[in-house]
Design a protein that fits this description.
450 residues, 12 helices, Ribosomal Protein S5, domain 2, globular, four-stranded antiparallel β-sheet, 32% helix, 11 strands, alpha+beta, seven-stranded mixed β-sheet
Length: 450
């Protein structure tokens, strides 16, 4: 019987770009968040030969892949291990993979990430099998939502379930990183910190489910070109600073694109994000439980200076569970936790560096972000908030480009606010989809489609 797996999407709550590495990739620090929007990947597999011992994936003590917050996975080379493991394996030439889809733009051969994942997983597991994959596309292709990467992770999960095998967690992560930089996050789900190319991942304490609107413009953004434009911007800013030390240009540049000291910026940023989401010290945004009072949330101490995209900084009632587990008796404070955590993230200066180079090339995307935020044309978010102190109705906590685009998203306090934003974006002629963020527990609970 075929296994149907929900292939969920992601947004980048923040994305910072660092210097170019010797291998040609850029260092990144990003905070991923999974969404309820999904494709469906159906896998059917029949072994033609097998040397490994079959197990029941549901019985493994890895809680269906749900790592505890703080679980860190750093991908390291293991080619020699692979060569040693190849000895005595069955003839993998007996394997056969077929792939079908309902979307004309999705490749149905070895170029497809799901195909690549299955091919590599069979080799690692030492199994020859006939595998059929069907991808039911609901998500936009190459829109910054990680759809192709999620398809690969879903194909692996479906393959394991079909064959009754489970690869070691470290091997799963190595496979995922080999297929694509965004693939490992989908083997964790929820809020995930990504470093390196994005493939070195750490499970973060979850945000509660939050209303989200995803805007999908009919614009194609080239990720390689966006990186090239970023490098050019950084070089220009660095040159301007040398010529004029009093230059007021925003400090986005790094003087030496290969300087080993520059990744410190990304490490510092990742530490700040982790502190806001985890049990960090009070001086970086958290209040120890012993110092909390009934009018504090345990997340934000008072009102610090902020880049206030979200509107007012008013306090909200404390939520009993700081790690996203909902208590039915306290559902009225559930949105309070989401609001305070998101406001805390906004106060860190969380943003997407790609906006600095993508928006000038595609002004339409900047306008869609404004519509998602709910601010009038020509008025900044800060000025709009100051003009309506205490009134944040109809506006977003936060809105940003996801990845290099072209998809954008906004996060909202209520379904009504989200629907209002959806209507604003749709009225501009752009597709807008209403959904929610998907915490880790729900991500895995809802993984297998009926």
């Amino acid at each position: 019987m075929a296994t149907r797996v929900c292939s969920y999407s992601k947004i980048n709550l923040g994305l910072a770009i660092g210097p170019v590495r010797p291998d040609g990739f850029h260092e990144l620090a990003t905070l991923y968040q999974t969404l309820g929007l999904h494709d469906v990947v159906t896998v059917t597999a029949k072994p033609t030969s097998q040397r490994c011992t079959p197990v029941d994936p549901m019985s493994q003590n890895r809680d269906m892949g749900r790592p505890a917050p703080g679980s860190r996975f750093e991908v390291r080379g293991s080619r020699e291990d692979e060569k040693r493991a190849d000895a005595g394996r069955p003839d993998l030439a007996q394997s056969k993979i077929t792939l079908t889809t309902n979307h004309a733009q999705v490749p149905t051969d070895a170029r497809n990430t799901a195909w690549k994942m299955v091919e590599l997983a069979l080799k690692r597991a030492g199994v020859a099998a006939e595998v059929a994959i069907h991808i039911e596309k609901n998500l936009p292709v190459q829109g910054g939502l990680g759809a192709g990467s999620a398809n690969a992770a879903a194909a692996l999960i479906g393959l394991e379930h079909e064959l009754g095998i489970v690869l070691p967690e470290a091997e799963r992560m190595e496979l995922a990183a080999e297929v694509g930089s965004d693939v490992p996050l989908f083997l964790l789900g929820g809020a995930v910190m990504g470093m390196g190319r994005g493939e070195c991942v750490e499970a973060m304490p979850d945000l509660p489910a939050t209303w989200c609107v995803v805007a999908v413009p009919e614009v194609g953004v080239s990720t390689p070109q966006a990186f090239e434009d970023w490098d050019a911007l950084c070089a220009a800013n660095a040159a301007a600073t040398v010529v004029d030390p009093t230059s007021q240009k925003r400090d986005v540049g790094y003087p030496d694109l290969t300087s080993p000291s520059q990744p410190d910026r990304l490490e510092e940023l990742s530490h700040v994000y982790a502190t806001v989401l985890g049990d960090g010290p009070a001086d970086l945004g958290f209040i120890p439980e012993t110092e909390q009072t009934p009018d504090t949330s345990g997340i934000v101490r008072g009102r610090s200076p902020e880049r206030n995209q979200a509107g007012s900084g008013d306090e909200v009632p404390e939520c009993a569970d700081r790690h996203g587990e909902q208590n039915p008796e306290q559902c009225s404070t559930w949105n309070g936790l989401a609001e305070n955590t998101l406001l805390a993230l906004v106060r860190t200066g969380i943003e997407n560096d790609f906006e600095l180079v993508v928006f000038p090339q595609y002004p339409l995307l900047r306008e869609i972000k404004r519509l998602l935020m709910g601010t009038p044309a020509g008025v900044s978010s800060d000025a709009f908030s100051e003009a309506r102190p205490g009134d944040s109705s109809g506006t977003a906590y936060y809105a940003a480009l996801s990845g290099s685009g072209s998809a954008l998203f906004g996060l909202y306090r209520s379904e009504a606010d989200a629907r209002a934003a959806q209507q604003r974006v749709q009225a501009s002629g752009c597709m807008a989809i209403l959904t929610e963020t998907l915490p880790r527990q729900e991500y895995w609970r809802r993984m297998f489609a009926e």
